[in-house]
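Lecture notes, unit on binding sites. The following record was shown on slide 14. It pairs a sequence with MTE.
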Amino acid sequence: MSEHDLTRRRLLGLGAAGAGGLLLGGCDRLNESAGWRETLHGATALNHRAQRLLMGDALAREFAESDLSSTFRANGSTSVADAVYRAHLASGFASWALRVDGLVHRALDLPLSALRAMPQRTQITRHDCVEGWSAIGKWQGPQLGQVLAMAGLLPAARYAVFHCADRIGGRPYYESIDLIDAFHPQTILAWRMNDAPLPERYGAPLRLRVERQLGYKHAKFVMRIELVASLAGLFGGKGGYWEDHRDYQWYAGI
Ligand SMILES: Nc1nc2c(c(=O)[nH]1)N[C@H]1C(S)=C(S)[C@@H](COP(=O)(O)O)O[C@H]1N2
Ligand SMILES: [Mo]
């Protein structure tokens, strides 16, 4: 595939997502009609399959240090009210641990020191938010696939669900990805951004980087990763906070 095609596809992909975002932001009444909902979800499933065929194992573009954005917007929740979280933040997350459970052989509680001791991946990538802004940042952490391999997935596991410490409008933020993205080499649990520990507003102590998808999939403040067979039993059943409450697409391919 030529660079031209890639660029064109990226523009088309972003254009579609951007238009979707505007539409959903501005036309909430439209979203309430059942027919429109079916159209949206039908398009989502088709889009997901088409993008999977086109993308295969493709890597998201990586950039050079000289491309780093001088400012990186912090978006969505930029702080967490939860008292347990605040206590961990105050102590530098010294006694915090990431919980990995659900359809796994061994549930894990991984302190930051364990995540830092694993083989690390560093990548400079562009974050694209559905609201129409982008920024290039440097991210470091273990690959999610390695963490999942330590836990050992049971055969029924199909999705990784990220439970976050923050709430928006009283509802917990969560996100999910399939195992293709979970084991993609650029999918990492980042504890470091631009060569410093992740600040609170960018998702301390740990945030997902899933580079082939839009910003809202990159869960910040990740406390727990749950392996499930289906997304139906979780919260609104659509696999994520924005998917449940704003009809954002579950597969947000760029
Ligand atoms: N837990 C949590 N994760 C989140 C959000 C949020 O509000 N809460 N916002 C999402 C959105 S819409 C974007 S664009 C990115 C913003 O990441 P940044 O603050 O590093 O720019 O985080 C995503 N992950
Ligand atoms: Mo976003």
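Take-home: The longest helix spans residues 3-26.
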